[in-house]
Amino acid sequence: MSTTAEPQAARATRPGLVLLVVSAAVFLASLDLFIVNVAFPALSRSLDASTTALSWVLNGYTIGFAALLAPAGRVADRIGRRRVFLTGLATFGAGSLGCALAWDVGSLVAFRVVQSVGAALVTATSLALLLHTFPPARRAQAIAVWSAVGGVAAALGPPIGGLLVEASWRWVFLVNLPVVVAALVVGLRVLPESWDEHETRRPDVVGTALLVLAVGALAYALVDAPERGWGDAVVVASFAAAVVAGVLVAVRAARAPAELVPVLPLPLFRARAFALACLSIAAFMAAFAAMLLGNVLWLTGGWGYTAVEAGFALVPGPLLAALAAVPAGRLGARVGCGVVAGAGTALFALGGLWWLTQVGADADYLTAFLPGQLLTGLGVGLTLTNLSAAASSALPPGALATGTATFGASRQLGATLGVALLLAAVARSSGELPGADRGWLLVVVLAAGASALALAIGRAQHPDLGPAPREEAP
């Protein structure tokens, strides 16, 4: 467990500026999960690539992000969260520049993996930096803002991407650079250093590689199966590899040598609220990712919207999510995080059900599409803050970085599987109503499962995580 001494230098830190820097970095990391969705048509034309191939522009980012979050958290605990956070920002910026200069799909996917490394380093340390800066009485509010920024950024990807694609798809990545530079400059001045002086273990590289293999093989099988056939030898072998690698991940985590940090912190999952929150966020983010990509494909294909029109058609949802997030955090603190998150995920499922039953071949945005946007947007606002708080409520201070990183990994793994399942559902009928209906049905099923898991959490409260670990002024 971390020590609890807090020198006066740490007290002089300005929490507002720390929140600004951390929020900017989390905004970029979350934004780049989904900003490329609306750029798919432009990327396909420019790079002469199929939607299936382009899916790895999304999955390369989410798989790397998910697999590296937990190891990044422990590295940060050992060598310093400020140091890892700033390194992650610089890495993310370098990856963004590489994406903007990419010459084919392979190079774009490779630079997206570099981005994912930076995003993992930033996200794994962001909440710990906040909680070590804010006093206990203000930590629930900091968690609410942190959660809201990530969720809203992910939902704002399409409208921002739609505007940027009008100039060039490369601006989708170049737009990150000014924010990265500004966050680095301010972060060097205001972020306090903190670490766990008792942490001497190293991340488990073998376990991390097995996790990447398991998720990557599963995503590959789901994306390729509709084209190759579900009985194809390559598809069957990919599913088998995913199962074997997944089992090996669990075995490796259970028997990790004492000097290594397992890729899955299995003891944390003994806490019921934490385990349920991780499962619920995975299912919810699968529904969210499927909804977002599916709606972009439908609006640009089925209704013939331009990238800009599709982007702005998706604005009402994130706006409502932004408005609801902080009040939802307060409501969760009053009546229970699981209860509010369960209601949010149920509203999200109702939004998918609305589209499934109301959207037709003829464009009818106001009465057929917009109500679903409002329902899903409100659902996002109610859900993300409270599932994050429910997970945090079960973590002891010494496991904060690892626990929040594991929860974040669950989010990214869910998003990866959501994209893969969506592409499997709409295969060969992208832009056609039957394919869109299958996509919305998938959203309903996933969100309903997330709701049941969230409700099982019950009245978990926003945490008071006690005194901050030892800190050193930058």
TrEMBL record:
Name of the protein this chain belongs to: MFS transporter
Location(s) in or outside the cell: Cell membrane
Recorded superkingdom: Bacteria
Species this chain originates from: Blastococcus carthaginiensis
Residue spans crossing the bilayer: 17-40, 52-72, 84-103, 109-131, 143-165, 171-191, 203-223, 235-254, 274-298, 310-328, 335-356, 368-387, 399-427, 439-457
Annotated keywords: Cell membrane, Membrane, Transmembrane, Transmembrane helix, Transport
PROSITE patterns to which the protein is assigned, alphabetical: MFS (PS50850), SUGAR_TRANSPORT_1 (PS00216)
Major facilitator superfamily (MFS) profile domain boundaries: 18-466
Topology in membrane: Multi-pass membrane protein
Keyword Membrane included in the entry's annotation: yes
